[in-house]
Amino acid sequence: MRVEVRDNNVDQALRVLKKKLQREGVYREMKLRKHFEKPSEKRAREHAAAISRARKADRKRAERDK
């Protein structure tokens, strides 16, 4: 990942970098890798996330159909 510093404005470049890292999911991955997660816990977490994504998609679809 690359961020250019313009006019010696390091603060703005840092903000852009943080935004890019967050969009890529680096912070989430760092948090998950901080501690070991059992495979069964990982499956349960991913399953719960899939269910919530499906419910959100259903809500959006129902709202669009109104």
Layout of secondary structure:
Layout: H1 10-24, H2 26-33, H3 39-65
Question: Gist?
Answer:
With 66 residues, the protein is mainly α.
Spans where pLDDT lies below 50 across 5 or more residues: none
The percent range for strand residues is: under 5%
Number of separate helices: 3
Alpha-carbon distance between the termini? 42 Å
Q: Estimate the mean pLDDT confidence.
A: 94
Oligomer: single chain
What does this protein structure show overall?
The structure is a single chain. By secondary structure, the protein is mostly helical. The chain has helices at 10-24, 26-33, 39-65. It has 2 domains: 1-35, no CATH class; 36-66. The protein contains 3 helices and no strands. The radius of gyration is 18 Å and the shape is flat.
Keywords:
66 residues, flat, 3 helices, 0% strand, 2 domains, mainly alpha
